[in-house]
Protein: GTPase Der
Organism: Campylobacter sputorum subsp. sputorum
Amino acid sequence: MQKVILIGRPNVGKSSLFNRLASKRIAITSDVSGTTRDTNKTEIEIFDKNCILIDSGGLDDSSELFKNVAKKTLDEAKNADIIVFMVDGKLMPQDEDKMLFYSLCKLNKPISLVVNKVDSKKDEERSWEFNSFGCVNTFCISVSHNAGVDELKEWLYKLLDKAQKIDDEESFDDFLENYCTDDGEILKEKNEDYNQKNIKVGIIGRVNVGKSSLLNALVKDSRSVVSSVAGTTIDPVNETYIYNDRVFEFVDTAGIRKRGKIEGIEKFALNRTEKILENTDIALLVLDSSEPLSELDERIAGVASKFELGIIIVLNKWENKNEKEFDEISSEIRNKFKFLSYAPIISVSALGGKRVHKLYDLILEIYKNFTQKIQTSKLNEAITSAIKEHPIPREKGKVVKIYYAVQFDSAPPKIALVMNRPKSLHFSYKRYLANKLRESFNLTGVPVILIPKNKNKDEEEK
């Protein structure tokens, strides 16, 4: 598997970018120069391609310790396939940075210059000075604001080998045998009777956003301890509630703090929260409408997205706010949480009980969408219409075709796209197809998983 290494002097934001690309906090970040001394490695997925991402120690020769760190970093760079060289955009270009960059260029590997901490217009104006490096692939980003990172990811995506994670070698014949009847419908033994199952709902969010108050309001009982002290809930609190003959299993999870503020037993609470989401159907992502959105809110939203759940965004503490304010906050959420564009947004006041009752019907609607089975003929009509409206781009002059589509699983909907060249279907076109399916079917609140498959076992991509 290809290796991508993040290189630069201390405190330029390598560990922060490492965590951002990995979509989880792995590397410790701080303002202390030289926090990372050993290299961190993890397997990540960039859209639908995998690679090994390496967070290296800062290149600094101010002491014997840091000289050893720098030597180890340069050795790692020689074994890497792609180099991402980072600099601090708050500073003017440094001669030392240029010397390091030019020495890395001699390794004859794909290399990019990433100017981090470009957080304002003043920073953007200063960033033009980095053109003096003469690097064609220069990206101005702000890791803390998640700005410009997608452009860097697209550059990396073009350099990475074709996706290997999806088992494209399994033939569609085998696939049908395992999942579907002769007419393409899902095998009955693979189906679950979702109408008889309890609906599992996890309540997640950072500390002190009102999750416990929301649980109490939903079950109409003071089941969970409520306090103004952040982090009151440590152990998950479970409670059932019956609505319209359906059993809801609510779980109030411990609030998630910034990494540096997690203390003692709360470390275990974070792990428990993720384990609970593994067995959850729908997540209520609770945000505090009285405070600005934070990077931590975005990280928690990313955790929910990772588990492919039905999601409802709940704006809590909605006292004395109007419709105009709701539109403004909703717009900000859509801008920052683009990966949750399918999630509905609802405002409530958990303490006052305002609009909490609307969540019951919304949960039922999302669960219905989450567990639905789309008729194969209608599914293919929608896919065919989408392709006619916007044909699939060719790959190196070769035609890419989708012959057939079939939903093979639910919760969430998983759809196989039977193709001649499954590896050639770009992630952006899959996103387009998912959006077109949302126009044809009620998929509000749920992710849509599209998986390209080979038509048959012996067919090669010619």
About this structure: The chain is about 35% helix and 20% strand.
